[in-house]
Amino acid sequence: MGDWWIDMNNKKNNDTEEKRTVLIVDDTANDIVLLNDILCQEYKVKAAPNGQRALVLAQREPAPDLIVLDIMMPEMDGYEVCRLLKENQNTAGIPVIFISGLGESRNKLQAFKVGGLDYITKPFEDDEVLARVKLHLELSEMKQRLEDMVQRRTIKLEESNTALKVILQHRQTEREKAESNVVSYIDSLVMPHLNQLLETNQDSKQISLTETVKANLNEMTCRFSSKFESKKLRLTRREMEVASLIKGGKTNQEIAEFLCISEPAVSFHRQNLRKKLGLLGRKVNLVAYLNEIHLT
User: Fold this and answer.
1) Domain 4-143, what architecture?
2) Distances (CA, A) of 115 to 24, 91, 126, 129, 138
């Protein structure tokens, strides 16, 4: 038995191309003719006399929109046909309605287990067949529309996400550039004058104020230091102040007097700095190291 294209609509109109295709799989010619008579007014009907041929036709364009599948067939029964259809990504989405004279619950359960969506028991009513086929075609179409909608929205979200990443990256680049400029301007335009000012004859109060300004500027540039950020040191404000003064070559006593804290407190902050910098147990000069990691 060869391929059967059963299309009774050609006698009445030329709209068959717009109709959805139903593939009937049954080894009984009378059942195929009967189902065709029921479905041909609404759908384009294609038929296969066995499971092997059904698997071939299911992948041939135009692919069927729905399959009406008998169970009891020689060589390959309907359960096996449905299982193979669902294992193939090209045919897995085609809805399958089983139609059979087997009316026991175990037969129906097996049909649903292998991937069938519905089960019609022979003998069947014409209206029942039409109603079930129409329902599952509409559900399939609705599912496809939802999947298409999700895909479109997913693409839009991915595009928006990509655009957002570009914007954030641009903002990050601009911020880093601005920070770098601030550090550069302070180091090249401000610090030299402060250092010269400290070398001039000033009273102790003027020297203290100048050193305070310098320490605050050092603290500011340290905040912008990319190496401080990359190491995620999370220095406290007081540690930043101590670090700035250490970089300037101040002793513990001088730092204590300048910050109005005790020398043991300065030693405590020095120890924390070495710990956060990963220098504990290493013979590394803290002053030299701080000046090395500072952006210049």
Assistant:
1) 3-Layer(aba) Sandwich (3.40)
2) 17, 12, 24, 19, 18
